[in-house]
Design goal:
The chain is α/β, with parallel strands linked by helices and about 90 residues long. The protein is built from three helices and three strands. α2 links the parallel β2 and β3. The radius of gyration is 13 Å and the shape is globular.
Length: about 90
């Protein structure tokens, strides 16, 4: 699982990094779970993260419970998707 800051990073922001990772996955068939860590708590910011391909979203200041809850949600969703793929 990869945790990315949504806001600007030195070379690219978390949205651009996520999009690049998702493009590389097209060739590999793998899926890296990506969760945003951001101070941007608006619905539009959350939407941008998911549109970029992020799997989860945690708002700073980060608390252990928030991380645990989001990891559990993302892992459950990922496990369900994997089960559906196997059943097809």
């Amino acid at each position: 699982m990869l945790w990315l800051y949504y806001s600007a990073l030195p070379l690219m922001d978390g949205l651009e990094a996520t999009q690049k990772i998702r493009l590389t996955e097209l060739d590999t068939g793998r899926h890296i779970l990506i969760v945003a860590i951001t101070a941007n708590a608006f619905d539009d910011d959350r939407r941008k993260c998911f549109e970029a391909g992020m799997d989860g979203y945690v708002v700073k200041p980060v608390k252990a419970k928030a991380i645990g809850d989001e990891v559990g949600r993302v892992m459950a969703r990922f496990s369900q998707a994997q089960t559906e793929i196997v059943q097809k």
